[in-house]
Amino acid sequence: MNPLLIFAAASLTIFGVARILFPRHKKGVTTMYKTHKEISKYHNDKVRLPQSTQDKLRSHRQANQNRLKNGLKEADKSLPKEFVKQGSYAMYTINQHQNNDYDIDDGAAFDKDDLVGDRGAEMTELQARQMVRDAIDDGSFKNLPEVKTNCVRVYYQEGHHVDIPVYRKCKDMWDEEYLELASSSWKKSDPKGVTDWFNNAVKNKSPDSNNGQQMRRITRLLKKLSTSRDSWNSPSGFIISVLADECYSSKIDRDDEALYETMRLIHNRLLSNLTVRHPVLSENLTKSNEDACMTEFRDHLEKALDDLQVLFDDGCTHKAAMAAWRKVFNDNFFDEQVASENRAAAGFAVASSVPCTPVQKQGGGRFG
To answer: Are both 302 and 336 inside the same structural domain?
Structure first.
């Protein structure tokens, strides 16, 4: 191949990466075309879970708690000491899903001494999950509740499901209480700690206090981006939430800028390190240093950031900006924003060309 062509291709690649790593600035301020209104509307209309759906999921959660308690009573088993709301449900980052595939995590925590078999022996983690599955199956489900590795899963015909992780409450040598999850083995877990970590980060880092607060909105948008194509192998919503916390960049009244800058910082972070640590426990969330989902997410972010470079052009138009966001989220919502603006402009032009009231030639008039 011609050496000049190789050099040109390499230069274009380096230039493209540099545009992402070092976006354009003017007098120290990022000159990004303003799309805050459209990104906010997208979040509110297409990302954030409607109140009616939240209420339905909450009712399913309560119904399953009642089923579990009734089933345990019938089997003469001890009841949970508490239910542990957790995951995206507790962090308020569940997004809309076109197939209603919502995941509600609602753990059931038992005293360790109560999790014993008929002969008094300590229950294994599998026996504890099986006990919960048997208790919650009251015969009303078309798809039977299923024992999974980390929970009992209850399915609903609408498409969503409720996961019930099973915990036992233990005490350490200092008489401090902690939870162990019934997984492939009993392992230490801290779902409350995770919820507190995220909700406190949102409260402390967000520059506002409305509409869920900005860091939570940015996390939802990042999760929406990661699931924007069915073919993508994306990291879990928990991992994305951890990355959002690490790299979140606040910008009052500019969710578009906050989202772009957070994406850029996450991308840069993943260029140097793909490993993600648990925010509360001493363990990794990623399986290795080169998880396929992490490399893929990094590459998708790079493509998205490159698509958004048009927003830094001096001559960027609303149409070009909307086309860029459409590429990023793979959603024709942004096409509709262009059409809506065109309709509004046409309506304004017609209205402004025809007087609405008779012309007043005398002095004073409506301002007199």
So the answer is: yes
The CA-based dihedral angle spanning residues 285, 187, 90, 137, taken in that order and rounded to the nearest 10 degrees = 120
pLDDT at residue 117 in the model: 85
Q: What is the pLDDT of residue 362?
A: 35
Within a domain: residue 366?
Answer: no
Of 215, 11, 223, 179, the residue nearest 83 (C-alpha):
179
CA-based nearest residue to 243, from 288, 187, 301: 301
- Assess if residue 13 is contained within a domain: no
Distance of CA 324 to the CA centre of its chain: 21
For 147-162, give one letter per residue: b (16+ CB within 10 A) or e: beebbbbbebeeebbb
Contact 39, 206 (CB under 8 A): no
Residue ranges in the chain modelled with pLDDT below 70: 1-30, 347-368
Q: Which domain holds residue 327?
A: 26-48+195-345
Residue 320: which region, alpha, beta or left (left: phi > 0; alpha: psi -120 to 50)? Answer: alpha
Q: Do residues 203 and 178 both lie within one domain?
A: no
**How many domains does the chain divide into?**
2
Whole-structure pTM value: 0.85
